[in-house]
Each structure stands twice: as structure tokens, then as C-alpha cells.
Amino acid sequence: MRKNKKGKPKYSKFEKLLYTLAIFLVSVSPLIIVFGKSTLSEVNYEVEKIKNEIKSQEKQNESLEMKINELASLENIQKVIEDEGLAYNNDNIKNID
Q1: Rounded to an integer, what distance in angstroms lies between the CA atom of residue 36 and that of residue 40?
Q2: Which is it for the CA torsion 78, 84, 90, 94, positive or negative?
Q3: Between 20 and 30 A from 72 (CA), which of 10, 35, 83, 94?
Q4: Each residue's pLDDT tens digit in the chain (97 positions)?
């Protein structure tokens, strides 16, 4: 750093560039931090939303599995057979050797 005739320091181009870059980084870094936290918050919200959808779907799947088991029970099958007029007759069964 050299002093000119009036006593003010004269900065080289590299020093000016360095100071400008430093001021730019100091002024822009809070914006970058806020933007990053905003993006992170949005992603966390989406994750929670998807987790809730998964829980809801799992409950629905459990309910449907219970309904399948209920409909596939032996008592229910026998009831449907009787309602349709079918009967199990052991005498009509033939074994083929």
C-alpha cells in the first residue's frame, strides 16, 4: 500500500478486488443461509407429509387384510355355499386309482 501526495493510501487492483470480494461475501452469506434453511424446512415438511400418507396407507392395508381374512374364513365360505344351494355330499366323491 502506497500513499499518494494527499496522504490517502492507494490500493492496488488485487487489494480492491479482494476487498470487494470480501464485502460481497459478507453481504450475500446471510441470504444464502436463509435460503438454505428455507429449503431445508420445505423438505422436512414434505417428508412429514409423506410419512403421514404412509401411515394412512398402512392402516388401510391392515384393514383390507382383516377383511380378506374375514371373507376367507371357513364359516363365511360355508354360509355362501348354503346361500347358493350347494351342499357337500361325501357319497358323490369318487376316488380314481
Answers
A1: 6
A2: negative
A3: 94
A4: 555 566 677 888 999 999 999 999 999 999 999 999 999 999 999 999 999 999 999 999 999 999 999 888 888 888 888 888 887 777 777 778 7
CA dihedral 22, 23, 26, 32 (to 10 degrees): -100
Domain that holds residue 82: 9-86
β-partners of residue 9 are: 3
Residue type, 83: D
User: Grid coordinates 479482494 are at which residue?
Assistant: 18
Residue 95: inside a domain: no
Identity of residue 52: N
Q: Is residue 93 part of a domain?
A: no
Does some domain include residue 94? Answer: no
Measured distance CA(76)–CA(82) in Å, rounded: 10
Q: Is residue 45 part of a domain?
A: yes
- Give 3's strand partners: 9
